[in-house]
Amino acid sequence: MNVTTMCFRGAGIWMRAALGALVLPVLLSGTALAQAPAVDPNMGALTFTATFDVPTLYMFRGLRQEVDPAFTYWPYADLRIDLGSGDGKIKGSAINFGVWNSLHTGSSGSGGEACDPECGSHYEEDFYASWTLSFGGAVGVTTQYTAYTSPNARFTTVKEISVKVAQSASGGGLRSLSSYGPYALIAWELDTEPGRGQADGGDEAGTYLEIGGGPSFPLGGRATLTVPVKLGFSLGDYYELGGDDHPFGFFDIGGVITVPLSALASRYGTWNLHFSGEYYHLGETGHSFNVDTDGNTSPSKFVGLIGIGMTY
Hints:
Elements lengths: L23 H5 L17 E10 L3 E2 L2 E2 L7 E14 L4 E15 L17 E14 L3 E11 L8 E10 L15 E8 L16 E7 L2 E5 L2 E4 L2 E8 L3 E2 L2 E2 L2 E13 L9 E13 L1 H6 L10 E12 L1
């Protein structure tokens, strides 16, 4: 695999961003909507979430996805269907369907030297379906199937099933584990062949482990700061390099500032602007993927992002 052309897969699914350019001016044009009664306009079982994010670079689980980035944008949409709730051991259940995209004008998209004129900017399109069971203590267990595809044929389709156990962050103070929103995720690659259907382009299907969390702090004016921390590991053949698997994938720490665009929910949904910065310390495989335009590699990388999101 030639990592300088970055013809391999990627994607992040617990994720991001679309819609909004048409409605945003309405939300910012006056205070009438913010003065409306504090009533949720969507009292049904369906919840729609969308975001539109613009990162400085696309990193997927510590694997760099582009040598020479230009303009990258991530439209994302998710539909949640609440199936019911109860007072027993299972407090609720829901299913989600979503699609996430990564479009590039740099070397992984329309600006790539190895790209023929018809391949275009659409580097990645991911489809997923998940089922979540909610338990006491704000604990949820989510099983998810994801298909990571590349419309411009820069990588082969990756199929993955994952299980995530997470506890929603609470206001219990920093001495309480629940205030950090801890989670753990295990993912298994499916239906692979040597060099095909794998995040690392390796020989064997990989098993991935991620653990993380992050406390949130009020900043005033309804803005919040979240400090996410996560670590990625290979439980088997996920970070292959030269035929060897490297257990440590990456360490990632960042900061996310979220600013609501209206004080109360409106008939257009609730909107926010968000800004983030992440620092990656990479393992051996991630280090080898982190190639710049001069052909140099680095064991670390900083990534910035700005985006808009909405929920209805």
